[in-house]
């Protein structure tokens, strides 16, 4: 499986070019097994846990087999607005050179805007079942040319009560279509749905569930913007001073650029990726193992098989594309029952991926403030004090005593020590930080806690309508929604926060009084 490349799967050149741009070097297991089956036209049941790359698994099969001139050819159904947006974004990146029209359709967004968009040349619709069915009934989604239907996270759609909407949609589609069903689990209702609406020769691909626990590794993340990512990394390294760390980038180009930037700052670092010769990679790995390199910057594929003792830190300069890769990455530290440290640099656009990682790994990934220059100074001062103390205790300084004696005859001893420390800092702490505090990324939303959840019969649609109609705010002001058993979280645009709290607080939704407060980002979900 490790030897399979995307170029071995029968994909067209435009799609392979997009995959290269995205930095994907090798397919995940579900991608390697599902893509050839999808390209051949078979109906497919793909059973794999969240975070294994299912979107590219069905997306590549569809994009490979349609063209811009085909009209609306595929409908992809997802359980939530957030997942529909996520799938839409990834498909657009995959279809970059095919110039396909791809449109997300979901509740909470004005239907008139969607109707106007559907009049353009759209090839793929990605939507939630309720809103897609609404468009079908209005006649704004035409079904006569549909060749592909994807049910993504089918078990979640079942849990959210969409089974009737799914059947209504499927019954209206042309019988000569390809159906791709992806689900982490296969409850009886999903099995019956597959048997009823998929062809007899449908292929079933089940990827063995792997453990995604990372209990021995301390995990944290830093909020960064695109322009502050590199400086944030340098601050973290200067503060923590890891003795041996692997830093992961998503692309080969990213590795080269980061290594160049780090070397210009004086870090002892080299890179590894798939474009480098095997001999070069082996030499680099040898230096890293021997300790002559402090930092190794690598892509996921290049780092495969690296087993180096004493790696104290793994740093995700870029978050990976799937949860499985994240677990594999941070597993490079914390070996042999030792504790390890994993840091991730996360921009606002990557919060949804971070949330997915937290959910699947059940990991406690805490937010840490980016170190200030004063923090770094204090940290390095402690290191210098320890180094000097250790040297004195070891009595390993005799040959320097004449120089010290000569200096002490001319200057005060405290002044001499301060000057030597300054000299040490000038070499270790570069004068490249423009300010004490690094500018934080602007928060896109305010996260609200609401005291209603699944037990109250709440779903995303009812919650959006409650907020929209009660507070008189635009649906576009409402962001990600997480509905749990006893309560919910909703992301709201900052400019409507007070309006939503004041208008909705104390009112009843499904006969339950709603209390609202600004959520603590570190609050643990029960």
UniProtKB/TrEMBL annotation:
SMART domains: DEXDc, HELICc. GO terms for molecular function: ATP binding; hydrolase activity; RNA helicase activity; RNA strand annealing activity. Residues 35-204 form the Helicase ATP-binding domain. Residues 216-377 form the Helicase C-terminal domain. It catalyses: ATP + H2O = ADP + phosphate + H(+). It comes from the Bacteria. Residues 4-32 form the DEAD-box RNA helicase Q domain. Belongs to the DEAD box helicase family. This is ATP-dependent RNA helicase CshA.
């Amino acid at each position: 499986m490790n030897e399979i490349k995307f170029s071995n799967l029968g994909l067209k050149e435009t799609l392979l070019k997009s995959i290269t741009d995205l930095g994907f070097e090798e397919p995940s297991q579900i991608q390697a097994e599902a893509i050839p089956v999808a390209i051949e036209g078979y109906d497919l049941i793909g059973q794999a846990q969240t975070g294994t790359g299912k979107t590219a698994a069905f997306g590549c099969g569809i994009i490979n087999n349609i063209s811009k001139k085909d009209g609306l050819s595929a409908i992809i159904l997802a359980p939530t607005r957030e997942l529909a947006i996520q799938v839409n974004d990834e498909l657009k990146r995959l279809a970059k050179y095919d110039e396909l029209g791809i449109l997300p359709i979901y509740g909470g967004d004005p239907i008139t805007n969607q109707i106007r968009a559907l009049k353009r040349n759209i090839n793929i619709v990605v939507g939630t079942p309720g809103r897609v069915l609404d468009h079908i009934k209005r006649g704004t989604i035409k079904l006569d040319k549909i060749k592909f239907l994807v049910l993504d996270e089918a078990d979640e759609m079942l849990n959210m009560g969409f089974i009737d909407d799914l059947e209504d949609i499927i019954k209206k589609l042309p019988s000569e279509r390809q159906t791709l069903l992806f689900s982490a689990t296969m409850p009886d209702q999903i099995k019956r749905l597959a048997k009823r609406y998929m062809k007899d020769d449908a292929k079933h691909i089940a990827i063995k569930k792997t453990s995604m626990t990372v209990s021995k590794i301390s995990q944290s993340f830093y909020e960064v913007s695109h322009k502050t990512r590199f400086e944030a990394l340098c601050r973290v390294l200067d503060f923590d001073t890891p003795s041996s760390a692997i830093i992961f980038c998503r692309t080969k180009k990213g590795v080269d650029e980061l290594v160049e930037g780090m070397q210009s700052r004086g870090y002892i670092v080299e890179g590894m990726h798939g474009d480098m010769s095997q001999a070069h990679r082996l030499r680099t790995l040898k230096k890293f193992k021997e300790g002559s390199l402090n930092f190794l910057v690598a892509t996921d594929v290049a780092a495969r098989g690296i087993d180096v003792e004493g790696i104290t830190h793994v740093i995700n300069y870029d978050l990976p594309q799937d949860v499985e890769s994240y677990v594999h990455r941070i597993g490079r530290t914390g070996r042999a029952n030792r504790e390890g440290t994993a840091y991730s640099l996360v921009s606002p656009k990557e919060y949804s991926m971070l949330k997915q990682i937290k959910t699947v790994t059940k990991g406690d990934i805490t937010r840490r403030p980016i170190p200030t220059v004063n923090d770094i100074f204090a940290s390095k001062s402690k290191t210098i004090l320890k180094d000097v103390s250790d040297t004195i205790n070891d009595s390993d300084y005799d040959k320097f005593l004449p120089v010290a004696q000569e200096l002490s005859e001319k200057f005060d001893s405290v002044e001499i020590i301060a000057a030597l420390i300054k000299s040490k800092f000038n070499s270790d702490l570069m004068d490249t930080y423009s300010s004490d505090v690094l500018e934080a990324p602007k928060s896109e939303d305010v996260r609200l806690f609401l005291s209603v959840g699944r037990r109250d019969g709440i779903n995303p649609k009812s919650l959006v309508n409650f907020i929209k109609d009660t507070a008189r705010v635009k649906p576009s002001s409402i962001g990600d929604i997480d509905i749990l058993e006893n309560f919910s979280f909703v992301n709201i645009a900052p400019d409507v926060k007070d309006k939503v709290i004041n208008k909705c607080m104390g009112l009843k939704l499904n006969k339950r009084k709603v209390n609202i407060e600004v959520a603590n980002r570190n609050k643990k979900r029960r």
